[in-house]
């Protein structure tokens, strides 16, 4: 009873390099993520480039930007805008291909020495296909594919978060993240 099990195997590797030009003035991080996904006698391969850069505008003030292309081999099928126990995570199949997305981000970062770090960032993410599960009395479960996009902004304050260069007696992070997400079917 129920759906048959679907077995899948994923392999991946990642290489990256940090490049500094002009000392600490300009830094670039370049990387490539390679992945393969095997399911139902079908193989999906992906080369996913990543790039990030930082420019020091002043001693404690920098601008950063990034780009990432990503593939996802597991889809969340939902028939609601809220998370419910009826939501399903399913692997790609011969009929439903991997989801891919392009993500862009940029931000300004300011450090008050021995006090805190402030940041303001924006992001944009475009992806396809997106799976949504729709229910039909006649057909049972129907999967519709579409595309999605997210636009967002973040502003935050961080003080000595563990893992940072200096851990202070009082540490933490507070921020506001506003995102608009759209799906088109």
Supply the key terms.
10 strands, mainly beta, two-stranded antiparallel sheet, 185 residues
Helix content: under 10%
Envelope shape: globular
Strand content: over 45%
Strand order of the largest sheet: 1-2-3-4-7-8-9-10
**What is the number of strand segments?**
10
Task: Please write the string of helix (H) and strand (E) elements.
Answer: EEEEEEEEEE
Low confidence ranges:
132-140
Largest sheet: 8 strands, antiparallel
Quick overview of this protein structure:
The chain is an all-beta fold and 185 residues long. It is built from no helices and 10 strands. It has strands at residues 8-21, 26-39, 42-58, 61-72, 74-77, 88-91, 99-112, 116-136, 140-159, 172-184.
Describe this structure in words.
This protein is mainly β and 185 residues long. The chain has a domain at 58-184. It has no helices and 10 strands. The chain has strands spanning 8-21, 26-39, 42-58, 61-72, 74-77, 88-91, 99-112, 116-136, 140-159, 172-184. It has an 8-stranded antiparallel β-sheet, with no helix packed on it. A two-stranded antiparallel ribbon has the order 5-6. It is globular, with a radius of gyration of 21 Å.
